[in-house]
Amino acid sequence: MDNATAPPHALELVFREDTALTEMMRLRVSSLQRSGQKRQDGERLLLPHEAVYRLDFPTQELHFSRWNFSLSAHGRVTITGISQHWTPDLTHLMTRQLLEPIGTFWRNANDPEETPLKWLEADMQEFGERIAELAKVRKVMYFLFAFKDGAEAANLSCSVEFSPEE
């Protein structure tokens, strides 16, 4: 969110949609619907306005610095971290694997375009620190992005900035 210039040693990681995993999760939903089956107890199915994104960590020793996001229209975006190491062909997403806090940022429909995005600063700070903690033991981490109130993936730019541990 901060427009300050990043330090030269900063590492900015961009969230990228994992289209294959998103599609696999959508197929699970449609398969259950076609067969008339119910989800497993505790299973978290992907909703139509959600997509799976990922962060790849080139190094594991990181300190959270700041979020960088922009939304070129109105809407609300929520980002939920997922604690599991993904093997989607073998395991379904379970609600117990969703991390707290979630990140939320938005622009109301009646806000002028130049109005800065609103966000829950304390939650976003804690969320960024949690991602840095998990990076210590991961090379990749997955997230659910939910687009609400008119937000669309095409209007979103989202990254998180870290500084290397000294």
From TrEMBL:
One of its GO terms (biological process) is signal transduction. It comes from the Eukaryota. InterPro entries: Olfactory_marker, Olfactory_marker_sf. It comes from Champsocephalus gunnari (Mackerel icefish). This is Olfactory marker protein. Pfam families: Olfactory_mark (PF06554). The lineage of its organism: Eukaryota, Metazoa, Chordata, Craniata, Vertebrata.
